[in-house]
Amino acid sequence: MTTQYTASNFKNEQGARWCPGCGDHAILNTLHKAMAEVGIAPKDTAVISGIGCSSRLPYYMNTYGMHTIHGRAAAIATGLKTSRPDLTVWQVSGDGDGLAIGGNHFIHALRRNIDINILLFNNKIYGLTKGQYSPTSDRGFVSKSSPYGTTEDPFIPAELVFGCRGKFFARSFDVTLDVTREIMVAAAKHKGAAVVEILQNCVIFNQGIHSLFTDKETREEHVIHLVHGEKMIYGKDKNKGLVQVGFSLKSVTIGEDGYTLDDILVHDAHCQDDTLQRELALMDGHSLPIATGVIRDVDGPTYEADVEKQVEEVKGKKGFANLREMILKTHETWTV
């Protein structure tokens, strides 16, 4: 008999210590619900974080958890999953923890395709250290560490994922709870490194940074929710859609300039060729709507499964089952 879980099975008695109104509260509650829907027992689940506001999250989980060191969440999550492939491993990082000091670990986790679920909270600011610009802050952004505006171009997380040949990428906002739960569940079911970017609001140091996409008055005209197998349609009246013109995407109004519903593209998240998925992921919400939902979800060999297989093959060929037997049988030792 399969055990049925509820969100309460994944909560503990700790009260979340984030600022009132912080988007992290909504993400935490949604993660509890997503884990219940996936149905993996709390004892078979681990949540790993680095340093930052988002990295408090493991304290509020009734699962195994590790609050590690700055930028090293992906490395520790990789080690855990490799040594305990039976566990479901979630990584929680902010845009600073995950893409600045942790950027190297982030890209290699994706390159290796280790089976972990990476929740990337992107509020385009360092919140815990009180408001410095981050790797995703826009050029010209004024902050405590850039009082005259940044002179750097930001990372686009999706671009990093695709550049590392990532197999899964999805996006949502902290206020779109159903979409966030939907993509968390999809990430958990995906075998391999799954990146879920959650555009999140920092009410203290970057209030309203994503308001164009989250305010009720503007979001329907600037956000498109992609669902595999469905037409790419958006807009307040659901009368706009995406078509391909040459090598580029174009937003059109259905029924105008000769465009019909038949011309609108159908989303294919499972296509191995990532060309169109990459274009969709890089839309910024201005000339083209920003995309939410599962944008890419394709199969590929996973690091921990191949390592486990290799270990068993080598043990079979070499005739030893552990380190002590290896030392005794190979005689590859020396005295200092």
SSE map:
Elements: H1 23-38, E1 45-49, E2 64-67, H2 73-83, E3 88-94, H3 95-99, H4 103-112, E4 117-122, H5 157-163, E5 168-173, H6 177-189, E6 194-199, H7 211-214, H8 219-222, E7 223-226, E8 233-234, E9 240-245, E10 248-253, H9 275-282, E11 290-297, H10 303-318, H11 323-330
Parallel strand pairs: 1-2, 1-3, 3-4, 4-6, 5-6, 7-11
Antiparallel strand pairs: 5-11, 8-9, 9-10
Helix pairs in contact: 1-6, 2-10
Write a compact overview of the structure shown.
With 336 residues, the chain is α/β, with parallel strands linked by helices.
Characterize the structure shown:
The protein has helices spanning 23-38, 73-83, 95-99, 103-112, 157-163, 177-189, 211-214, 219-222, 275-282, 303-318, 323-330, and strands at 45-49, 64-67, 88-94, 117-122, 168-173, 194-199, 223-226, 233-234, 240-245, 248-253, 290-297. It is α/β, with parallel strands linked by helices. The strands form two sheets. An eight-stranded mixed sheet has the order 2-1-3-4-6-5-11-7, with helices on both faces. A three-stranded antiparallel sheet has the order 8-9-10. A hairpin with a 2-residue loop joins strand 9 (240-245) and strand 10.
